């Protein structure tokens, strides 16, 4: 077993020029803070990691595993042609909220609508990054360019604050083929903030998750059930 420790400052130095343009659209603060770049690590991981590293699973700290993480690696084999990232759907109506203006202008859209037919956006608590595929995807790398980021944020009137998750969500609205959607049981989010903030009527359509949970995600400091 080989453990390699990466220096956060070194990573940030490499990341900043790649993600600087998107930070102003998807960061909590106003403006572009150098230190915020680390919240976009997954977006440009393929540009930073050594070429011999071809696949990475990136996870949040507020998770509880109910199965062997090795089973999650098997999901890489299920990626359809052209997909570069494995990610689960967001389980709250946060993006129904964020895309309100686009939704108002496009009443028939699936953007921000709940599953199974809608596009609720993504949650980046559990990420499968096929670095090899990310390096080879012309489309994905074009989408990292500042002009493309600007174009999409204007089209969707998008202003977020959740870092990489916002970028993947916005790109997923335009190019769903870049993503392998993980089952909700691989990232069973527990946060219910939006239920009490104006969306109680539709909340459960986003929050429901059938099947035996494999990873619990105690997002927004939500307690994770004991065994």
TrEMBL record:
This is XXLT1 xylosyltransferase. It comes from the Eukaryota. Transmembrane segments: none annotated. Pfam families: Glyco_transf_8. The keyword Magnesium does not apply. GO terms for cellular component: endoplasmic reticulum membrane. Keywords: Transferase. The gene is Xxylt1. One of its GO terms (biological process) is protein O-linked glycosylation via N-acetyl-galactosamine. It comes from Agelaius phoeniceus. The keyword RNA-binding does not apply. GO terms for molecular function: xylosyl alpha-1,3-xylosyltransferase activity.
């Amino acid at each position: 077993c080989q453990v390699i420790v990466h220096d956060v400052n070194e990573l940030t130095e490499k990341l900043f020029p790649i993600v600087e343009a998107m930070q102003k659209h998807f960061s909590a603060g106003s403006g572009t803070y150098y230190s915020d770049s680390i919240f976009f690590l997954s977006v440009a991981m393929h540009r930073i990691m050594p070429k011999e590293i071809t696949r990475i699973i990136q996870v949040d700290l507020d998770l509880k595993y109910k199965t062997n993480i090795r089973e999650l690696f098997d999901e890489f084999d299920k990626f359809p042609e052209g997909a570069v990232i494995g990610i689960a759907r967001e389980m709250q109506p946060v993006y129904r909220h964020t895309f309100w203006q686009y939704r108002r202008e496009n009443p028939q859209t699936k953007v921000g609508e709940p599953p199974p037919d809608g596009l609720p956006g993504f949650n980046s608590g559990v990420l499968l990054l096929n670095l090899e595929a990310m390096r080879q995807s012309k489309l994905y790398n074009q989408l990292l360019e500042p002009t493309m980021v600007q174009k999409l944020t204007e089209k969707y009137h998008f202003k977020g604050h959740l870092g990489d998750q916002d970028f993947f969500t916005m790109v997923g609205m335009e190019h769903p083929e870049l993503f392998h959607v993980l089952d909700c049981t691989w990232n069973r989010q527990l946060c219910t903030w939006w239920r009490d903030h104006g969306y109680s009527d539709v909340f459960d359509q986003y929050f429901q998750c059938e099947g035996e949970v494999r990873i619990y995600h105690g997002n927004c400091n939500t307690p994770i059930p004991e065994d």
